[in-house]
Amino acid sequence: MAATRAEVARLAGVSPSTVTYVLTGQRSTTAATRERVLRAVEELGYLPNTAARSLASRGMRSVGVLFRRQRTTIDANDLDYVDGARAALESRGIQVVLPVLSSGAAATELDTMVRSQSVDGAILMDVVRRDLRERLLREAGLPTVMIGTSGVAGGAPSIDADFDQMALCALEHLRALGHRRILGLMRRVGGRDANAYHAAIRGLRRSVCRLGMEAVIRSEPDSALVGADLVGRGGLVEDCTAVVANNPVAVIGLACATRAYGLRIPQDLSVIALGVTEYRGRPDAAFSECSVDREAMGRTAGELLLHHARGETVARRVLIPSRLIDRGSTAPPA
């Protein structure tokens, strides 16, 4: 079996990325480090993958934005990130592509993508805890950044929303209007789902405590019927006066039930989204939101990838603040 970069790193007593720097010249290293790495390469008979050698010789020409295989759709909100990456990279002659991964075998597909040299760098989307894609691409020596975080110490550089600040943005707005008891309508997720959903719940809980407010937090499946059950003729359940939501499907059900009971948003109850909870083109779903500038986030990812590929020192994690977009779905409590 052929030796791997990780085995070379262990024998030389350095990190896998240092092996890449020595072999590609992307970053300067000490003479002693270079000697140890080259000695380990010779002893193990290591052959660097063709993608890493090619990138070192010809520079970056294409970047893949990789969504998870489980995705059934890529919507307009997702494409905001892609547009941002394009703005950062295509002006430098680097093409941005969305590779089609046709099977569930992540290791095989990513290995094929790297060896075929179809992309010279990657931006990972829908990042989950200990994301396998991150590890595989780093081991292959492909420059990679993430929109989201995998929680792995020393992992690929990442850009993420500041979820504590996002929740605080929403709650401070509601508190200024006079709301004190809110319903947190959050998306129910599993242990390995995208970290964004877990971080949003943690941020909401911390912000509620910080502002001295009260909250009924429900983690619900993507179901309009579940959302509809959270409102009645008298308003929201458990005497809440406003909804803070990151569950797009459930909040639409809640809004429909509100109208069915003869109630109005925002006169009878307020709704504000964390992140994106609107369906573009649907006026009934145009809720106020606290969210990041998605194009700016994609642009930051593209710029960070460029610096990372050049071997420059980059921040391991960049947090992007949210801003309030007021679409008129909040008002003082009735």
Automatic annotation (TrEMBL):
InterPro entries for the chain: HTH_LacI, LacI/GalR-like_sensor, Lambda_DNA-bd_dom_sf, Peripla_BP_I
Domain HTH lacI-type span(s) in chain numbering: 3-57
Superkingdom of the organism of origin: Bacteria
GO molecular function: DNA-binding transcription factor activity; transcription cis-regulatory region binding
Keyword set includes Isomerase: no
Keyword line: DNA-binding, Transcription, Transcription regulation
Alphabetized SUPFAM superfamilies for the sequence: lambda repressor-like DNA-binding domains, Periplasmic binding protein-like I
Full protein name: LacI family transcriptional regulator
Gene source species: Actinomyces bowdenii
Lineage: Bacteria, Bacillati, Actinomycetota, Actinomycetes, Actinomycetales
